[in-house]
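Task card 7
Instruction: Convert sequence to structure tokens.
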Amino acid sequence: MATANINFYIGPMNPIPENYTDFLHWLKDHTETYWAQDPRTSMNEAKCPLWIFGAKWVGMTEGQGIIMNNHFFGTGLKMMI
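Output:
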């Protein structure tokens, strides 16, 4: 299976940030850029599926973040949210 050059369809990639918060912003920016390309008209080699075209990440309230943190990491751990 051939792999697509990611720079071809979302532009040059910056290094992946080590800081958790910076990484989440980096991930959001790169995925939304990919999802913003209309697969019906894009000339790029890799296209997002039509069902996700135009999608955006939705933020969480602090309360939702705490619930997710407790669900995935248990109540004894505290992530920076």
